[in-house]
Each structure stands twice: as C-alpha cells, then as structure tokens.
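Record type: ASSEMBLY
Status: queued
Input:
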Amino acid sequence: MSAPTDQQLIDFVVREARLIDQHRFEEWLELFTEDAYYWMPLEWGQTDPKLVASLMYEDKLLLRIRVERLKGNRTFSQKPKSRCHHVLQTPQVDKRDEAANEYVTWTPMHYVETRYDDQQLYAAWATHTLVVQDSTLKIKLKRVDLVNSEAAFGNIQLFM
Amino acid sequence: MSRYRNNREAVADLVRPTEVHRDVYIDEEVFQLEMEHLFANTWVYVGHESQVAKPGDYFGTTIGLQPILMVRHTDNTVKVLYNRCPHKGTRITTETCGNTGKFFRCPYHAWSFKTDGSLLAIPLKKGYENTGLEESHAGKGMSPVRHVHNYRGFIFAKLNDTGPGFEEFFGESLSSFDNMIDRSPVGKLEVAGGVLRYMHNCNWKMLVENQTDTCHPMVAHESSAGTAIEVFKKAPPGTKKPMAVEIYAPFMAPYEFFEEMGIRVWPNGHGHTGVHHSIHSDYSAIPGYFEKMVAAYGEERARKILGENRHNTVYFPNLMIKGPIQLIRLFKPLAANKTLVESWTFRLVDAPDMLLERTLMYNRLINAPTSVVGHDDLEMYERAQEGLHVDANQWVNVQRLYSKDEQPDVTAETNGTTEWQMRNQFHAWSKFMTMSM
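Status: finished
Output:
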C-alpha cells in the first residue's frame, strides 16, 4: 500500500469496530502493531498515560491476555458472555503525514455493552493513530476518551 | 415492620462466633442502623492532607451516608464539617475539591462561613434582628465534626461522642501506615494520579472481607492471572518479565504461599495479611530508590522498612491499605446492595517516579472497572448478593481455622488462610453497632 486514501482510513476504523462487535478478537488483535497501545484515559484531556491513572493503558501483551481470557473455561465474569455494539459517526481524518507514515482519525461513538438483562450505554471519542506496515494499515495507538471518564462504572468487559 | 430498630438483642444475634446472618448483607434496616451506629461510633477515613495543602483548600466526601468536607483552616489545621448550609440545607461546595479562599459562601443566599464552619455574615442581616437567630441551629454556622485526627497526614473522623479515642481504636495497627509512609525517604506521601471509582452491586462488607480472603485468588483469578502467566510463557526465551506480569503472576501462587504469608489480627476489627511475605515481595527493584532510602535512614533501617511487605491491611470499618505500593481502597456504603469503591494512589515524596508508575499500573490492572481481576471479584460479590436470598440456609460461614480458645479483641499472628480476621471484623461490627443502641 502506498499512502492510504481518506476512504481507506475510514473503512479501516469502521471495520475495527465491527470485528469487536462480532467477537472476532484474534483478527482484531492483528490490527495492532507489535508496539501498539490501547489507551482509555481517566481524566478529561489527559496527556500522561504513566503518572496519571487510566482506565486502560495496555500494550499488545496485555491485550492478548484479555483476548485469551475471553476464551477461557473459568472466566466466570463472562459466563454468560457480554455482547457489545458500536455506533460510529463517520471517522474524520485529522492528520495525514505520509513522510512520517502517520495518520490520525477522530471518531465520535456510542458503545453499548450487555450481559444478562443489563444494558449499559457509553458515549466516547476514539482517536486512532494508524501506520502503514507491510502494505497494510495497522493501529499504533487507539485512544478512547469516555465523555464521563471519571464516573463510577460497573464492569466494562469488552473493548470500546 | 421493624425487626432490628430498637432491638439491640436482635442485632447482636446476627453475629455468632463462626457464622453471620445474611441480614447483615441484604437487610435495608440493618444497613440504616450501620449508618447511624457503626459508621458514627468508629474512626472513618476522610482523606489525605495533601488534598488540602493550602488554607482554603477543601475536599468533599462522605462518612457512611453523611456528606462532609475537609478543609484547611486559616490556622493551617484540617477541619471536617458537615457539608450543608445551616440555612436551607444546600450543599456548600460546588466542586468535589477546590479552594474557597478565606470563607465558604453558600451559592443560594450568600450566607458565608469561616473555614472552621462558624457563621461569618448574612446579607440583609437586620431581617434577623430580635428573632433569636443566635439560639437557632442556623445561627451557629456549619456543624463541625468534633472528633478529627490527623495521623501523619491521614485524616480520620468520628461522628459520635460514643466510641473509643483514635489511639485506642487503632493501637498497633497504625504500624501499617507507618511502613507505608516511611517508604518515602522524607517520610511524606502525596495523593497522586487520580482516583479510580468502581460501582459494585453488593454489600460493602463483602469487599472488606475479600481483602484478607487468601483462598480465592488462585480460583477466582485463574482466568486473568493464570492467563497472563500462560501468555508470557510464549514470549521468546530470555525476555525480561514485564512489570504487568510481575503484578499478575503472584495471584496464582499456591495455597502454601498464602498459608505461610501469615495473618495478624488486632483489636477493634483491624488486621492484615502478609506478616512474612506477600504478593508484593518479589517486585523488581526500582533503580536509585534503595540508595535514596539508605541515604535517608541508614542501611539497616532502610532494609527493615523495605523488608516489611504487608499485603492488605484492613482498617475497620471500610478502609484497606497496601503499604508496599502506596495504594488505599475505600469501600463506601451506598445501600445494603450498593457500594462505591474508591482506589487512591500516593507518590512517595523524593522517590523515583517509577514507583508511582508501578502503583498506577497495579491500580488499573487490579482495581479499575475495566480490570480483568476486578471483573471476576465483582462477579462473585454479585452472585453472593443474589444467593443470600436463599431461605434454606440464612448463614454465612467464617469458620476456617477457628479454635474454641480464640479470644476477641486480641493481637495475634496465625496461618495466612485463616478467616480469623473476618471473625475479628464481625466481632467489632457487633460491638460498634450495639454500643450506642
């Protein structure tokens, strides 16, 4: 792949959400570079993931642990399994830097997670930092800012 | 129908030496009585003085269900006040924390109060002339909580005049606070990183009991900690164990590890796991830290401080601290079946940032609403909250390693898988529930 078009960036972000909604977590994990991070800040406008608390700041090892755990026979909080559903606004391409091989999209979204009779609605903005690697797009950083990130939540078990 | 109000005997009967009645977890009337008696007769954690560093700084929180605030008064002491305007009841503070300057000003009618709560001014005050305002509740200003104690920066308060003094209530258990604070080369902590807030649909006591429940990690957390170990096994040979795996892996330690770590109980419901070692013992050294500790304390004392690796210390009724990683969890009761868990982290003043980085990683991996360890714990609590409605058996068992010689309100060290600390908590529960009935 040479420089991706805006439409290719948009399609990538939309497909990423779909893989989560369909529980295709192995394929989803493949979308991340080996040095990627998935970040859910705790604070509004947070800039520091290490010396300020976050809901998640996970490298690929930690994401793989989550994905493997979801398959486990003794994963009690996933018996029965949660399901989830993303509604995305059309991703907006905020940055195209072909020389640095870095593309940033911004995607407002609603995310629903359900288990038993419980259904929770979350509103968030997803910021994807994407790179081209081996001719395909990959995620270097996925940042999810919940609108109410400091609120007291119950279990959030899948991926926004 | 009122089963427990005005019935001291019925409340006392809920706790037996080795079992407790389910109503302590599921009955709303018992919960209300806990708020009125247990949370009023005991010293409850309010906050840390670094949250109110300068005069006028305030922080709003709760003791039981009572809205309170702590504030740094102009004389530099920390005051605790009930958070309502004495006029119409409006909550005084507009944000959770901030700086109010030299006085509080109610946003409703602009009554103002000094930072010790005393009435400063009322607009158009002549309307109260000859009305006897001085004699009214309103004329006295914001009500202070009278029993406040600052222990090396940690602020506790007791709402009632009933109940023991601070030193008598905590006694030797304060050694866990000492160890946490002494881990700073200058003996000082600061709240840092932000608070994780996690809502639990279960009774607050289930969380407190779980802090010294050493027979659940290898079972309930197999899916998270066990998977972490398995995934890391596939890393190329020679890969350095990441901080995250160091944090997860000890949850899968065998029963012997937890038996040998030991439990120490103290009077009044306090106690801790990890007398000899804990899940925090084998973390990698942080470069530069030991040298700073030696420079501050000398090598012998530095080794002694860092060699103490207590696991979880329960401060009855609703606080747990982890000294080795400067993390505390506050279990805030909201209803019989609803608890807000706040997990706070601290910076060791004058120690390397990497220590705070590890503490924050621990907090988000274990205590966040997005934590795979937290998910399975909450699943167990919620199942218990549901299961306790079974009428066929109305008792919860806390019998493990019980001996008929066991005395209440003593200091003792014992096997790390005992449920003595849970029995200790319920003995204290019964004592402080009934002492003002």
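Annotation: The first helix of chain A runs from residue 6 to 21.
Annotation: The two ends of chain A are 27 Å apart (CA to CA).
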